[in-house]
Design a protein that fits this description.
alpha/beta; 2-enoyl-CoA Hydratase, Chain A, domain 1; Rossmann fold; binds (2S,3S)-3-hydroxy-2-methylbutanoyl-COA
């Protein structure tokens, strides 16, 4: 991020030009706000200057308030953005905002304070504060409706979606589209304003034009309220915009400010601002410089055309990267290709893609039955059966066939990547790319770093992830990496609640009420209880003493695999997915408790949630201690994007911060003391204890 935020000042003829220069997107941090006011005062004091243009760079007029400033003490805020905008609007000389790239949030609000606005046609104008759990807090909810009317303003503010400047040509929001050089065009525009002695257009003096405003606002309250149950911001946006109708401008500003400051304190906004930062932090690898040279990936070889391989293939061809798709048998290859085609035909039917796009994407796949097809690919990703023996065969063959400098990746979800790399003569070129099913939909990609993985291979993988629209998180090598390792603990915690006396439906309902997309037992029935059972059976055979019996194994042994067999933890009517509690399962659980000498007790919903989420947190702390994850926010990103953790809670580690780490520790100790609990499992991780003792948090 920026090192020297500042503004540049120059005078062209009788027009002063203030250029915002706070790379990468002119975040309106303190220094920049001071620079703008200084530039304005300089122009006002100079008798030779008759107008002022404010502009940014080709990439950004401004990306808005500096999101990293939010957590700083209030003192760092003056001049606050509202005051900067007020100074501009109150200028006695015309001020023209010249916009290229993005003008978002406070950036657009800054431009609305100018008397005139000119822009490149493809500039993007937006008020995305709602995506941070906020609302435009520097006059946007009062000025935008005055320029474009209630409906357009409300749509922009509640959706947070940017709009191309061209759409506002000819409206009071935009005085001119500049085709040539933006600043030259803006200076000429300013000179004409002066020459014509055009009155200064102060947006605050305009009135909102909206027939039946109150009826429209009531409609907006109802529709927005219906869709924003976990987030308070959208409805507050409606209230703030409502204050632009009828009352005075200054009263409207005060209402906006009060609502903004109220939202700033909400846990939901804290969560969304955390996610914004976390998503960007995840792409950084502490010991891999950002300018590390990357390898060019012009084509990708994928081994396996099943669900995973096909989904991975689509991720690449959707990004326009050619794929060589390898299967062992023609029938499997044909089946995989047919599934991909079917997926695109369904998108075509829904109008999501055109026929041309469908044809273009399918043309990017080269099916093959021979590894020879991989001779020229720059990256190979295997999505074959999860057995180390199979991986050995695959990687030895890839090592033989692929050209020097090519990257060899495994999609393994749990096997040891270092062991896999050791099958080759080029461990520095081996990396884990763990996709989540369905791979063409799920954003999360765990980039598993082996002990010998080259830094350029890591840098290449992180850049490639961005290109295929994945959010990549680096994981070290351990059983289950970050996500599955934590989900194993989460599952064990839920099972303890089940053994203690809760029912599958009570546990699922409690977790879904907390905000998880799907309760753990419904998720097990969806994924298939046989899959988890196979893994536990393998581990039991390898290490019988470590095996802990669970009800799910009883169900799997009884052939109850979940939805695929019409019964698992729940029963399902033919062809339906609605989970129906099954007395047979209740009986199996009762028998299971009896065998293990457990007397069932009442388990509260609160205890269920605390056990499940704090188990994740405790394992997350261990993952941090071991260096498997680089930072706590990476763990949040994994859970938010791979396991349906609710965004309004910001992730398990942020949730722990909001609860308070000492409270997490007290709960863990309570569970450890419960009869039947796994005391070792509930022992608070040393890092968690250390942070709590120091009064610190994970994020
Ligand atoms: N403040 C500070 N840094 C920002 C920033 C911002 N507003 N926006 C982006 N960055 C950094 C980002 O952290 C990353 O840093 C780099 O820029 C590239 O970002 C009062 C209170 C502008 C469309 O919500 O939507 O104004 O990782 O990877 O894909 O009403 O960033 O390189 O160190 O996303 O080209 C409202 C948020 C703030 C806009 C560029 N504004 N940003 O996308 O690059 S609240 C927003 C974006 C506000 C007022 C309120 C996007 C982008 P690093 P990037 P990109």
């Amino acid at each position: 991020m920026s090192n020297q935020p500042s503004t540049q000042y120059e005078v062209r003829g009788a027009v002063a030009v203030v250029t915002l220069t706070n790379p990468p997107v002119n975040g309106l941090g303190h220094a920049l706000r001071v620079g703008i006011v200084e530039g304005l005062d300089r122009a006002l004091a100079d008798p030779k200057v008759s107008a002022l243009v404010i502009t940014g760079t080709d990439r950004a007029f401004s990306g808005g308030a500096d999101v990293r400033e939010f957590g700083t003490p209030k003192s760092g805020w003056e001049p606050n953005l509202g005051n900067v905008i007020k100074a501009i609007e109150g200028s006695s000389k015309p001020v023209v905002a010249a916009i290229a790239g993005v003008a978002l949030g406070g950036g657009l609000e800054l431009a609305l304070g100018a008397h005139f606005r000119v822009a490149k046609a493809d500039a993007q104008l937006g008020l995305p504060e709602v995506k941070l759990g906020l609302l435009p807090g520097a006059g946007g909810t009062q000025r935008l409706p005055r320029l474009v009317g209630l409906e357009t303003a409300l749509n922009m503010i509640v959706s947070g979606a940017p709009v191309p400047a061209a759409k506002f040509a000819g409206t009071p929001l935009l005085d001119a589209i500049i085709d040539g050089d933006l600043v030259d065009g803006a200076v000429k525009f300013a000179e004409k304003v002066v020459a014509d002695k055009a009155p200064l257009k102060r947006v605050r003096d305009l009135k909102v034009k909206q027939p039946n405003a109150e009826a429209f606002l009531q409609f907006a309250r109802n529709t927005v309220g219906a869709v924003s149950k976990n987030f308070p911001a959208p409805l507050k946006c409606v209230e703030a915009v409502a204050a632009s109708v009828g009352g005075s401008f200054d009263q409207g500003l005060k209402t906006e400010r009060d609502l903004f400051l109220g939202l700033m304190q909400t846990p939901e906004s804290r969560a969304l601002r955390h996610i914004f930062q976390a998503e960007r932090a995840a792409s950084k690898i502490s010991d891999v410089p950002e300018d590390t040279p990357v390898r060019e990936i012009k084509s990708v070889g994928i081994i396996g055309a099943g669900t995973m391989g096909g989904g991975i293939a689509m991720s690449f061809i959707n990004a326009g990267i050619p794929v060589v798709l390898l299967e062992a048998k023609q029938e499997a290859l044909d089946k995989g290709l047919a599934t991909i085609r079917k997926n695109y035909e369904s998108s075509l039917k829904k109008g999501k893609i055109t026929q041309a796009k469908l044809d273009e994407r399918l043309a990017l796949i080269t099916p093959t039955l021979s590894y020879d097809g991989f001779k020229n690919v720059d990256l190979a990703i295997e999505a074959v059966f999860e057995s180390i023996e199979v991986k050995e065969t695959v990687f030895k063959t890839l090592d033989e066939v692929m050209k020097p400098g090519a990257i060899l990746a495994s999609n393994t979800s749990a096997l040891n990547l270092d062991q896999i790399a050791a099958f080759t003569k080029r461990p520095q070129d081996v990396i884990g790319l763990h996709f989540f099913s369905p791979a063409n939909v799920m954003r999360l990609l765990e980039v598993v770093r082996g002990a010998k993985t080259g830094k350029d291979v890591l840098a290449t993988s992180m850049q490639l992830a961005k290109k295929i629209k994945k959010i990549a998180v680096v994981s070290g090598v351990c059983d289950g990496f970050i996500g599955n390792r934590i989900v194993a603990r989460y599952g064990a915690a839920a099972n303890e609640a089940l053994n203690a006396g809760a029912s599958p439906q009570q546990i699922d309902k409690a977790l879904e009420k907390f905000g998880l997309a799907m309760g753990i037992y419904r998720m097990g029935d969806l994924a298939g209880l046989d899959i988890g059972y196979a893994g536990r059976k393998r581990r039991k055979e390898a290490n019988p003493d470590a095996y802990i019996p669970i009800v799910a194994d009883r169900l799997a042994e009884a052939g109850r695999f979940g939805q695929k067999t019409g019964a698992g933890f729940y029963k399902y009517e033919a062809g339906k997915r609605d989970p129906i509690p099954d007395p047979a399962v209740d009986q199996m659980i009762t028998d299971f408790r009896k065998e293990r000498g457990i007397t069932p007790r009442k388990v509260s919903d609160e205890e269920i949630v605390e056990r499940a989420i704090f188990a994740m947190v405790n394992e997350g702390a261990r993952i941090l201690e071991e260096g498997i994850a680089q930072r706590a926010s990476d763990i949040d990103i994994v859970y938010l994007n791979g396991y349906g953790f609710p965004a309004h809670r910001g992730g398990p580690m942020l949730y722990a911060d909001q609860v308070g780490l000492p409270n997490v520790i007290r709960a863990l100790k309570r569970f450890a003391a419960e009869p039947g609990s796994d005391a070792k499992f509930w022992t608070p991780a040393p890092l968690l204890v250390k942070l709590a003792e120091e009064g610190k948090s994970f994020n």
